[in-house]
Amino acid sequence: MKELDYPFDSKDILRNKREIKKKLLSDGTPRIKKNIAVLGGSTADHIISMLRLFLLNAGIEPHFYKSEYNKFYEDAVFGSPELESFKPDIIFIHTTSRNLTFMPDDASVTEEEMEKRIEEQFKYFRQAWDGLAGRFGCPVIQNNFELPLFRRTGNYDCWGESGQSAFIARMNVLLSNYARHTKNFYINDINYLSATIGLEKWHNPEAWYLYKYAMSPSVIPDLAYSAACIIKSIFGRNHKVIDLDLDNTLWGGVIGDDGREGIEIGPETAVGQAYSEFQSFIKGYKDYGVLLAVCSKNDMENALLGLEHPCGVLRPDDFVSIKANWENKDRNIQETADELGLLADSFVFIDDNPAECAIIEAQLPQVQTVRMDTVGAAMYALSRGGFFEVTSLSGDDRRRTEMYAANAKRIAEQKSFASYKDYLLSLEMFAKICDFEPIYYQRITQLTNKSNQFNLTTRRFTEAEIEEISSKPGYIRLCGRLCDKFGDNGIVSVVIGRCEDDTAHIELWLMSCRVLKRDMELAMLDEFVKKCRERSIRRIIGYYYKTPKNGMVAGLYESFGFSPVEKKDNGDSVWSLETEGYVNKNEVIKYDKRSYINE
Amino acid sequence: MNNREITERLNEVFRDVFDDDSICVNENTTSADIEDWDSIEHINLIAAVENEFGIRFKMREVSGMKNVGEMIAIISSRA
């Protein structure tokens, strides 16, 4: 459910938690049932209600046991009949720095006494863990400790004998050591969590005085999400595949247009460095058993060319599957999943294009999408999302049949857009198609020199030539700009037709690959035919000049309804269309008649 | 913002928090009138109201509010 996928809106989840819960419970998803005991050192009610939502969303139906207020130690060490009969599958010890009863609170504490206090404090928790291990032997999740907001002695607090920050830091080291050497014991790292959220936001003393919440209620969803990620990992509900776009996701630039020398990866530029770091970050996931795949709108040849870039970190054989074609990405992801024998819900998809992310979210909602906005943001989202939380235990065997049952259900629910056209309509696209205007000369020139794939004649122009053509009456010039609900794609298509008597010869027809399969080419054609009719032109001649890169438009004129005039052995072809009787083809893009938004 | 507007927005918050579209609060509504309004849900309600109106209640107010009328009065004095 979108509301619960990272990044989520905590305020919204807290306010609407009842409605969200109802929706989850009635969505018919088969879930594995698990008993989860929450032993709290402070109020835990909202932690449990948030945990429930995130676990339901991860395919786990939890039943909860909640210790009496701050009775985590008693329950663990001395046991309770309720907890015994509850038979927990997992125990979550929700304690915080408020439970550090041996924390020094005055200046009299000596180094020796500090050692003793740390030892005592650790022993106190250790007794709880030992008690639970002896009684239940199930996985235990333990919060570590958050730093304090108030430091009486300032920086001294982190190193002085009586420092509380110092005490907490040492406790956290002891907890980590214990976790490393203890099977079935996991740390919920609220020390990290409170730092990323910010201690100023994390701490809310009034919530403690009023309700005995050890942190601000507003951060409880974050805390619960973090614990839920550990739980779902323990029960084998982790994601398994990172499926990546290529252009502007694994490198800067468009390989099909810019070529291997033109894309940015490697130490030469800042952008190149960012993508190198991103590739290294992604590659590191392989060591933890995560599968990598590619899903890119590209020719295979170009995809491999980019992945074999000498400065690249990821290589073609790092990927279990490379889909580089012009199919819709939801189909490619589904195919990859089928080939790997996995469900699409184990996929995390990363793409810089928000429209591609949106189509995945609509067509394959079980796929988690991560928008590649900046390299840093993507790495943060990928890691904070908790998709690949590492725990040593692997999943139940019972899961298998349930997985297949869930799959059958999803197939029935999958297609939320009745058709591709509905999807295009949902993008709310607007095009502005106009004559070359001086403010666009530079961009038009750039496009004529950069575009290689969707380019029928691959004619290059200088800015002076564009300017010259713009001043001549014998040309039909169009440049098209496309906006959708995600933003402005800028000028994405350019057409130049040279008029001769009652015939227009298309000397240039190009489009940026960013807007492929949006029907922008149809909108351009409609407009071109309209301009021809205004000049009483009856025949349009289109030329396709084959290059190593423009194979994708070899059949474009045919798809437009042109008739073949000539097909040469070298792959070039000539096409013609009568303007009379032409019926407009674009049905999904509206035309923006306003004078346009300024650059 | 007048009391009527505050009450309307407040009502939306109540309906969301208790997931009950039949709720219609007025100045005299108390926790006794809404079945799920217990001390735990009160925490959530307070946070949601604070977020809705961009205000913070004082601790004494959180524990001292007798009815929705008092809540409206506090919001109106602060928003």
Give an overview in words.
The complex is a heterodimer of chains A (599) and B (79). Chain A is an alpha/beta fold and 599 residues long. Chain A folds into 3 domains: 2-234, SGNH hydrolase (Rossmann fold, 3-Layer(aba) Sandwich), CATH 3.40.50; 241-388, 3-Layer(aba) Sandwich (Rossmann fold); 425-591, Aminopeptidase, CATH 3.40.630. Chain A has 23 helices and 18 strands. In chain A, strands 16-17-15-14-13-12-11-18 form an 8-stranded mixed beta sheet, sandwiched between helices. Chain A has a 5-stranded parallel beta sheet with strand order 2-1-3-4-5, with helices on both faces. A 5-stranded parallel beta sheet of chain A has the order 8-7-6-9-10, sandwiched between helices. The longest helix of chain A is centred in the first third of the chain and has 25 residues, at 111-135. The radius of gyration of chain A is 30 Å and the shape is elongated. Chain A starts with 9 loop residues before the first helix and ends in an 8-residue tail after the last strand. Residues 393-415 and 595-599 of chain A have low confidence and may be disordered. Chain B is mostly helical and 79 residues long. Chain B has one domain: ACP-like (Non-ribosomal Peptide Synthetase Peptidyl Carrier Protein, Chain A, Orthogonal Bundle). Chain B contains 4 helices and no strands. In chain B, helix 1 (3-17) packs across helix 2. Chain B is globular, with a radius of gyration of 11 Å. The mean pLDDT of chain B is 93. At the A-B interface, helix 1, helix 2 and helix 10 of A face helix 1, helix 2 and helix 3 of B.
